Amino acid sequence: MQTTLRAPITFQGQGLHSGRPAKMTVRPAGAHHGIWFRRTDILVGDTLVPARWDAVERSPLCTRIRNGVGVEVSTIEHVMAALAGCGIHNALIEIDGPEVPILDGSAAPFVRGFLTRGLRMLNAPVVAIQVLTGVEVHTDQGWARLTPSDGLVMDFHIAFDDAAIGTQDRRLDLRNGAFVRELCDSRTFCRLSEVEEMRANGLALGGTYENAVVVDGDAVLSPGGLRHADEAVRHKMLDALGDLALAGAPILGHFTGHKAGHSMTNLLLHELFRADGAYRLVECDSAQRARLPGVGAQLDEMPAVA
User: Fold this and answer.
1) Is 235 annotated as a binding residue?
2) Please, is 147 exposed, middle or buried when counting C-beta atoms within 10 Å of its C-beta (0-12, 13-18, 19+)?
3) Going by C-beta distance under 8 Å and a sequence separation of 6 or more, which residues neighbour residue 245?
4) What is the pLDDT confidence band of residue 173, given thresholds at 50, 70 and 90?
5) Stretch 161-176: mean pLDDT
6) Active-site residue 138, yes or no?
7) Is the pTM of this model over 0.90?
């Protein structure tokens, strides 16, 4: 059945790119509500923004959504990944500014909060998006693909010149709470050489060594080093799950990303919904539901570092 939170939970911090303080409360919602954001700092007009693939304003460094009158919320990918990875289908997210708080740079604080509050079953079945034929998109930087699978499986490849990252590959079947165990604590990362350029362009103003992994050549500059030897590719997979969650329903399919990022994953969803016969909506039976991300997620399985 569909789920929501048992009780509201509030997170406070600062936006990674804006540097502005942010307070965000995730509230329970009824069946078929989906995930919506509401800007509480805007008092007039339409303040609701749908967490949906066709509301995305493409941005290379984060995922930003906008409603029809121009109200925006950005850097939503980590909280969206946490919702999907915990199996939460319905929520209203109230936020007092334009950017989700970055917290520690991963999805772990959100996951811990959600699993501590607990989930409530709703009187409606889960509807999933079953991929029927392969769809693929390419850019100058890489490519992304969705092919049929009986659950959500993810393959990801990255390659960076900095030896601290280098070339990394990982494959993960996301059933049985795998997101909570394997991905949720992996933090966003950047190269030191990119920081000044980002800040000159009004980005990463809230970034610190505590909420991002910063590398320079073969050195990891953030205190404590890496949480995983392949933390970078794990974080890319975390981002991809959050961006795929904007499909509006869980996906039964095999995602492959080759140097893929936020914009490319969104392009892939556009292609999935554009292509004739590429998918169908299925009302999940118990066997299908058991293969969805979040089912079986347990608080005591979170990595200790998080």
Assistant:
1) yes
2) middle
3) 35, 51, 80, 81, 83, 84
4) very high
5) 95
6) no
7) yes
Is residue 196's pLDDT more than 80? no
CA dist., res. 274 & res. 293, Å (int):
25
* CATH numbers and ranges of domains, the chain: 3-301 (3.30.1700.10)
- Would you call 99 exposed, middle or buried from its count of C-beta atoms within 10 A (0-12, 13-18, 19+)? buried
Q: What count of other Cβ atoms lies within 10 Å of the Cβ of residue 6?
A: 13
239 is in an annotated binding site: yes
**Six-digit token string for 169:** 């590959």
In angstroms, the CA 156 to CA 102 distance is 23
User: For the residues 50-57, what does the mean pLDDT come to?
Assistant: 97
Query: Which two three-digit tokens encode residue 64?
Result: 């930003």
Question: Do the annotations mark residue 254 as ligand-binding?
Answer: no
Region 157-185: mean pLDDT is 96
pLDDT digits (tens, 9 = 90+) for 61-98: 899 999 999 999 999 999 999 999 999 999 999 999 99
What are the phi and psi torsion angles at 111 (to 5°)? -60, -45
Closest to 125 (Cα-Cα) out of 249, 27, 246, 35: 249
| Residue-averaged pLDDT of the chain | 94
| Residue 288: CB atoms within 10 Å | 17
Alpha-carbon distances, residue 128 vs 30, 78, 169, 279 (angstroms):
17, 21, 27, 10
Which of 89, 228, 254, 262 is labelled catalytic? 262
The token pair at 168 is: 């990394």
- Separation between Cα atoms, residue 246 and residue 188, nearest integer Å: 19
Candidates 45, 50, 103, 105; CA nearest to 72 is 50
Torsions phi, psi for 159 (to 5 deg):
-150, 120
